[in-house]
Amino acid sequence: MKLEHQALDRGITVLELIARNGSCSLAELHKASGISKSSIRRLLGTLVERRLVRRSLADGRYRTSVLMTASTGVPVPADVAFAVDVALPHVIALTNEIGWPSDIHLFEGDRMRILESTRPLSPYHLYRAFIDMHVNIFGSASGTACFAELPDSTFESVAAKTRNDKEWGLARYGLTVEQYRAHLDTARKCGYGMRGPHFIGNTRFDDGLSAIAVPIHRDEKVFGAISLLWPKDYLKPDAFAREYLDHLKRVTGAVSEDLERLKSFAGGASPTG
Question: Which domains does the chain have, with CATH numbers?
Answer without folding.
Answer: 2-72 (1.10.10.10), 78-263 (3.30.450.40)
